Amino acid sequence: MTRTRTIGATSAAAILAAAVTIAGFLWLRPAPSTATPSATPVATAAVLRGTLLDTKTVTGTLGYGELSALRPSLADTSAMVTWIAPVGSIIERGKPLYALDGQPAILFYGSVPQHRTLRFDTNTPLPIWVELERAQTALEAANLALDLARERLADAETRTIDVNARLDDAHSTAPITAQFIELAGAVAGAETKLGRVTELSAAQLAPPVEVAAAQAELAAARAAFDAAIRAIRKDLAAARLDAITARVAVAEAGIKRDELRTGLDALLARAGDDADIQQIADNLAALGYEGTLADQVRAWQKASGQPVTGIVAPSDMVVAAGPVHIADYGASVGETLIAASPDRDAILDYSNTEKLVTVPLGVGDRGFAAIGREVGVTLPDDSRIDGVISEIGSVVTEGNIEVTVTIADQTALGGLEVASVDVEFVSDSREDVLSVPITALLARQEGGFAVEVISGSKSTLVSVDTGLFAAGRVEITGDGIDEGVEVSVP
């Protein structure tokens, strides 16, 4: 590659190198001790007036900008990749980037990610926020569930009180419930009968079999009483268990209700933000759709191969600042993406369509780079275009920082996508100054520099002050030094 460059060298390192060159030359060419005429030198150079530049040329890489990883929003727990835009293609507004389960994801321009699902109804002037609608319904259901849990708790507590009262009545000496009046009466009657039969048997007025029968009758009465007590205690345990379960259900329902209410409040706080709605409207208008927004949405869905539902979900679109360049794939057609997978790869990587140049600039040459400073870029065909430094990295890698150069005239890059280019940085410049080759300088014994001015067959030693050293030349000023004056050089 042929490298073209303006008059230039390097910054501090270049000046030091130039100084070494000067020192070596001046050691070979000491200034004459007097200013007497001398023979015409072998060669001369004219003093030039113009711009003197301190430059450095570094090889960089032309390519696209920083990549963005696209991880699609999945409407379901999983989806199959059925189509992806080709690598290297440029996707514009209204065109699909990929398709999941046969449903395309369309590129819209903007800065607001589509973060919610909207339903555009023909009878409703404003779209319905589906997530908000669902949150309101869920909160209503949670309130109903909480009311039901509280009713169950109240019922269980009432039953516990009633059963406790029945148990207390059962142990009372004078029960008031019909069941225990009857059971207690049966026990008392059996006890009385056994006592009478026992007395008669002792007087040999009743056979022993009647005593045994009376004892069996008493045992049966007492067993019936005890069974009734056990049944009440079982009912009491069940009522207490129901009460505990109901209390847990009330607590859980209350927590869920509060969580849903908090979520709904958060949604309501954002309900007035219609930036995403306006973004959809702007894109549909730019694509040429007319009519109400609901009509535009349905017409767009039909034209783009989506279900014509009027519902726009985050999975239906991808929002980017402008056209995008497909750089690489993270998934392949036929692959199933799992929504819950924490390490799920991006389906594709993309960048914007603007090509730029990245340059590894040595840390010592940091002074050449300043945001907004113009640079020259030489392409592989030796053509030269202008660039502007847009970003300077802060991370040092192998002694270099990355400098980003933007190219305003993208058409000048033609079909180049990735290429090695030369970037010429300018650290310092002097406009409308006089300069001579560095080799024209002579070292004076008393210090400083001079040049040997040639006029015809005579020469005169003239003291000069030096300025910027760049591109093998040096800025000078001195008496009689003007544009076109000839000075001796080796």
Q: Which percent range describes the beta-strand content?
A: 25-35%
Q: Quick check: average pLDDT?
A: 87
Distance between the termini: 31 Å
Total DSSP helices: 6
Shape: elongated
Please provide the count of β strands: 24
* String of helices and strands: HEEEEEEEEEHHHHHEEEEEEEEEEEEEEE
Structural class: alpha+beta
Low-confidence stretches: 1-28, 33-37
* Helical fraction: 25-40%
For the biggest sheet, the summary is: 6 strands, antiparallel, barrel
Q: Which radius of gyration do the C-alpha atoms yield?
A: 49 Å
Q: How are the strands of the biggest sheet laid out side by side?
A: 2-15-18-17-16-19
Summed up, what is this model?
The protein is α+β, with helices and mostly antiparallel strands.
Can you characterise this structure?
- This protein has 490 residues and is of the alpha+beta class.
- It contains 6 helices and 24 strands.
- The strands form 4 sheets. The protein has a 6-stranded antiparallel beta barrel. Strands 11-7-6-4-13 form a 5-stranded mixed sheet. A 4-stranded antiparallel sheet has the order 3-14-12-5, with no helix packed on it.
- Helix 2 runs antiparallel to helix 4.
- The chain is elongated and about 180 Å long.
List the helices and strands and how they pair.
Elements: H1 12-28, E1 43-46, E2 48-64, E3 68-70, E4 78-84, E5 90-91, E6 96-100, E7 103-109, E8 118-119, E9 128-129, H2 130-170, H3 178-202, H4 208-270, H5 275-286, H6 293-304, E10 311-312, E11 317-320, E12 324-329, E13 336-338, E14 348-352, E15 355-362, E16 374-378, E17 384-392, E18 400-406, E19 419-437, E20 442-443, E21 449-455, E22 458-470, E23 473-477, E24 486-489
Helix pairs in contact: 2-4, 3-4
